[in-house]
């Protein structure tokens, strides 16, 4: 059973990183974080209320409710186009008071956009090599060595991705609290999904190496 455990761990880690890599707006429920703004004044019935959620390839914002002296205007929510890198709609920036956060959000998410898919790609390679070794381990060391190398790279990249995702959330939350008390940041799922993938990759890599070298030792004993 332990012989196939690394394959299961690599597969789950791959799925997690794949979901993180696509995230919002491709998958509507997976996001880095959500910024919510609630600036309403009961005295004059004036203010704005709405939220925007960020993913790897863009953002989605909810209906934005704007009240001016009791008159309500609703801006329908929608998502940005799916593409590498994105530019904020100026209307969204003005409505949700995001002027001072544009550069920080863009920079952090651009870095995450690069790291997460690369980690996902190396995890997929590791999964392929692990499957190859599981069914062809008698045919040489190639799948074991390649799997160990790609697994190490994938685990390191997943660790970097987790740190990047966590830093993005922490720094953005800190900046939000400084800029406006009415802005609130709530964390999404991507950081914890990346953490889970990182743990699975490190454990899977150790098990893969243990299983691999045991298999090679057994093979040598049978040969001699």
TrEMBL record:
Its main location: membrane. Signal peptide: none annotated. This is Uncharacterized protein. It is a multi-pass membrane protein. InterPro entries: pH-response_reg_palI/RIM9, SUR7/Rim9-like_fungi. Pfam families: SUR7 (PF06687). It is found in: Membrane. Coiled coil: none annotated. The keyword Coiled coil does not apply. The keyword Cell membrane does not apply. The chain crosses the membrane at residues 111-135, 142-168, 192-213. GO terms for cellular component: cell division site; growing cell tip; plasma membrane. Keywords: Membrane, Transmembrane, Transmembrane helix. It comes from the Eukaryota. It comes from Serendipita indica (strain DSM 11827) (Root endophyte fungus).
């Amino acid at each position: 059973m332990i012989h196939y455990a690394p394959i299961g761990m690599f597969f789950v880690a791959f799925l997690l990183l794949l979901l993180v890599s696509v995230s919002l707006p491709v998958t509507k429920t997976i996001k880095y974080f959500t910024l919510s703004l609630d600036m309403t004044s009961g005295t004059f019935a004036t203010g704005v209320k709405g939220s925007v959620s960020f993913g790897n390839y863009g953002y989605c914002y909810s209906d934005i409710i704007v009240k001016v002296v009791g008159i309500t205007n609703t801006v329908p929510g929608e998502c940005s186009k799916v593409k590498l890198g994105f530019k904020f709609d100026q209307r969204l920036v003005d409505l949700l008071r995001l002027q001072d956060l544009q550069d920080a959000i863009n920079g952090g998410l651009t870095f995450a956009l690069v790291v997460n898919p690369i980690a996902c790609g190396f995890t997929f390679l590791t999964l392929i090599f692990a499957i190859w070794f599981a069914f062809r381990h008698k045919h040489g060391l190639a799948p074991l060595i390649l799997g160990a190398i790609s697994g190490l790279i994938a685990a390191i990249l997943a660790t970097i991705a987790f740190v990047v995702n966590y830093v993005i959330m922490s720094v953005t939350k800190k900046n939000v609290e400084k800029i406006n008390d009415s802005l609130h940041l709530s964390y999404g799922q991507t950081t914890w999904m990346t953490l889970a993938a990182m743990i699975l990759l490190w454990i899977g890599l150790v098990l893969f190496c243990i299983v691999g070298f045991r298999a090679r030792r057994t093979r040598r004993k049978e040969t001699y």
